[in-house]
Amino acid sequence: xxxxxxxxxxxxxxxxxxxxxxxxxxxxxxxxxxxxxxxxxxxxxxxxxxxxxxxxxxxxxxxxxxxxxxxxxxxxxxxxxxxxxxxxxxxxxxxxxxxxxxxxxxxxxxxxxxxxxxxxxxxxxxxxxxxxxxxxxxxxxxxxxxxxxxxxxxxxxxxxxxxxxxxxxxxxxxxxxxxxxxxxxxxxxxxxxxxxxxxxxxxxxxxxxxxxxxxxxxxxxxxxxxxxxxxxxxxxxxxxxxxxxxxxxxxxxxxxxxxxxxxxxxxxxxxxxxxxxxxxxxxx
Amino acid sequence: xxxxxxxxxxxxxxxxxxxxxxxxxxxxxxxxxxxxxxxxxxxxxxxxxxxxxxxxxxxxxxxxxxxxxxxxxxxxxxxxxxxxxxxxxxxxxxxxxxxxxxxxxxxxxxxxxxxxxxxxxxxxxxxxxxxxxxxxxxxxxxxxxxxxxxxxxxxxxxxxxxxxxxxxxxxxxxxxxxxxxxxxxxxxxxxxxxxxxxxxxxxxxxxxxxxxxxxxxxxxxxxxxxxxxxxxxxxxxxxxxxxxxxxxxxxxxxxxxxxxxxxxxxxxxxxxxxxxxxxxxxxx
Amino acid sequence: xxxxxxxxxxxxxxxxxxxxxxxxxxxxxxxxxxxxxxxxxxxxxxxxxxxxxxxxxxxxxxxxxxxxxxxxxxxxxxxxxxxxxxxxxxxxxxxxxxxxxxxxxxxxxxxxxxxxxxxxxxxxxxxxxxxxxxxxxxxxxxxxxxxxxxxxxxxxxxxxxxxxxxxxxxxxxxxxxxxxxxxxxxxxxxxxxxxxxxxxxxxxxxxxxxxxxxxxxxxxxxxxxxxxxxxxxxxxxxxxxxxxxxxxxxxxxxxxxxxxxxxxxxxxxxxxxxxxxxxxxxxx
Amino acid sequence: xxxxxxxxxxxxxxxxxxxxxxxxxxxxxxxxxxxxxxxxxxxxxxxxxxxxxxxxxxxxxxxxxxxxxxxxxxxxxxxxxxxxxxxxxxxxxxxxxxxxxxxxxxxxxxxxxxxxxxxxxxxxxxxxxxxxxxxxxxxxxxxxxxxxxxxxxxxxxxxxxxxxxxxxxxxxxxxxxxxxxxxxxxxxxxxxxxxxxxxxxxxxxxxxxxxxxxxxxxxxxxxxxxxxxxxxxxxxxxxxxxxxxxxxxxxxxxxxxxxxxxxxxxxxxxxxxxxxxxxxxxxx
Lengths: 284, 284, 284, 284
Fold this sequence. Notes:
Chains A, B, C, D: Its EC number is 3.5.1.10. Chains A, B, C, D: This is Formyltetrahydrofolate deformylase. Chains A, B, C, D: Catalyzes the hydrolysis of 10-formyltetrahydrofolate (formyl-FH4) to formate and tetrahydrofolate (FH4). The structure is a homotetramer. Helices cover 33% and strands 27% of the residues of chain A. Chain A is α/β, with parallel strands linked by helices. Chain A folds into two domains: 4-83, Alpha-Beta Plaits; 90-282, Rossmann fold (3-Layer(aba) Sandwich). In chain A, the strands form three sheets. Chain A has a seven-stranded mixed sheet, with helices on both faces. A four-stranded antiparallel sheet of chain A has the order 2-3-1-4, covered by helices on one side. In chain A, helix 6 (178-183) links the parallel strand 8 (166-169) and strand 9 (188-192). Chains A and B meet through strand 11 and strand 13 of A and strand 11 and strand 13 of B.
């Protein structure tokens, strides 16, 4: 895949912002592959993402960063430049449900998700068989016979060891403790099996069945200390009816979960998501 | 349109039920246009709807009812037989938003909704212009300068006077008092502008905006005394993104509202909905 | 609604393009409400739309145009600047089906579609009732008792007389002659009741029924001399099953038709559509 | 999973049909899990599927068949009774694209698809790695260095050897010869990567890109000798825009392909599909 640099910015809105950025890019001969802008007029805030062909730029990545820094400062920007060839390390956390885990693994294996997967961590040992096939190191962490705090300390140590850039909770089903949520802020993605804010918490399909809704869904969001309350990246829904049993709902829901999670992760890996307060701008 | 009779049943599930009903229909020469069955195995309950060609039956409607009564009794059925040529009287309640009102009126006027519309009742007088065009009696009820209980008493008197079989709250935006909810149980349909149970109550689009969801929707449900908690008939959703302003969300949401309400009302008018506890079976 | 100017551009892709445009806007103090870019790397072509707050600009519309012309020329741009307060005149053509006509009229009447509607032209006189209510001049053109070329000459004369900027064929059901298609190129929008390219031509619902598809749809496209082959602006689909009768398909299809047409017209009116060869870029 | 028998019938419509079948079931104490009916009034044909709890029936499967035969004959029924515990053997044909193959394998492995998979046949050897993990016998058939007729003779011999009840072409990408199509009539399912009848034949995504459609899709259908013309079981679509590259379209399309194929196969395995002429009734 061609190498691109991604310049992602959010800052207070003001006149001259786009001109300054695009003049900078033009001055350095950057060919723009994709440019996305969003002005939130309620907040007076501006969001921007440029993807540029690396080989057209007459600057190295490092020099690009240092050359852009003064502009960024003058407009009070939150910003980053990332290199598409520097693959992010994505750690996968799983439990006993395999559908999301395998879906992510297959998309990665077939080249659809452009990242490295340094490890799979699960609280059920049978996930090892999938890890082995994909030749990804597997770690079982016992959440049953030891204190959860101890188990999460082991998870955290593994994430540190593998230097995970992103942690994906592929139906992990354990409530992440506050301190770890804070450490992973903006770098941990969860899939919840309902169209939030409906049916937060445990057993969303049962809740949906009990309420008699005609649609079920899934929500991909960043992990925060408030359970199922983090910034939403992507949601999917599917129609159900009275004739759908609990098993049918689970089956249909899995399809939503896989799609929402895969899209959310891809958007994140391509630096298409900007978190602002408790919401996201997604340049899909 | 050809005349049909609709036999709608729910009862405890047991062997021989379908045989008894279909033997009864066959004995009376009924040609079945449409037959729908549902067994709720968790509840052990059976739901059934038959639509039969009236002119193939060798019984009048009245005789059909009396002939079927013993079967119904022996299986402890809730049941009814309705005649497609006996149009239901549908009273429309509206406020200042016209999109749902007009959508229902146009579907009725063009023959898509097979019913009579004896009156439109609104708490904003400007709805009269639409009523006039469609030649439907219009009643303005003042909810601003008089007590709400008094206003609702006027609404109730009008529903009684026009002998409404069904009351449709086409974005009526007033909380119906408990006693009227109970009187209209199973005979009043509301459209709520969110995918319930998310964003019940006031200003659902603002709630959706604040939460940063990626889908908004609408829910058509029976009115009960617990606000936005009644049995759901139909739901619609539509995708939104960060670039959708509040106005965009309202526009997209209106489309969901119209579709969900029109479908819900049509299902009800065609006796396709069976309410059981707080859920519905919808033989769509 | 706040006044905006919309600068819409397409041209060969090259470095410095965005910088030149955004520098121009910044130099003239323009606050950008919305900016959209698209590079078609296969074609080497660039598409761009800016919507700017009129009152922040230190130029009149006329001066904006003359000031921008040299930049446009240097980059070989197709371009235009439009003023949101200069309402486009939209002539509606209809036949005997009213659903699309009324939908457009209601969206216009309620302020969702920001345009003028100077006239409705139909080949069935009963559409007059709707025109009257909305106080829009109505013209019946007889397509039955006179030659079609004569009838179309009358339509053309009316479009000229009312100085229509856009002509919307709201299920007009007559094949527009080549010369008129050419005259209206990029300024006439049709709704076809199938998901093109499936089921072009006559009776698409019957074709869909005969083929046994599980989805039906509608396509909003620009009119060209090749029937149902023009650039597509928007498409909608809806699920059907074996249990949907021809009447059900028509009913469901109408919902797709209304939505696709309304969206397509709105995109056009807001200068969100750029036609290039036989395709569109839609900055939705 | 509980054992059920499925009685699937289609025949000319006539009064007394349902009564005869349901009386037969009641007389033999069958508890009905699910009953579906459809009358095609244009064709005067009736379609019916019953799923009954095997252990409530006072007849063996064999006796059920012989007891029902006279009823079937008297109503000129096409019919079958199948046993949910007699797993169908599903042979998978694949080429070099793995997404549909793996999706089917994972759904089978996780218990969602209730069948046996006796073999995978592919014209690219690298599919063996997946077959190995799932412990399914793998056969590579060379379509490149030998005549296609010879290659297909090898495929046919393998299908015979493994006694395949159903053959699934999981993006097999080879045109099946007429004689094999006829032999597999109603027992071979293909996934085509467009919403048929749009873009039949080769390179549908390229065709879609060239036409500029705003939706792409996938179609699951029975294989017939007329390429991409067989009875459709299921279709899926997804929205695209000008900003979707060819690679994006492939990615989005794959999601449709997997869902449509998995649903189509599941419906077939559960005897929910009745083929009549070139269309299907699907009791989903």
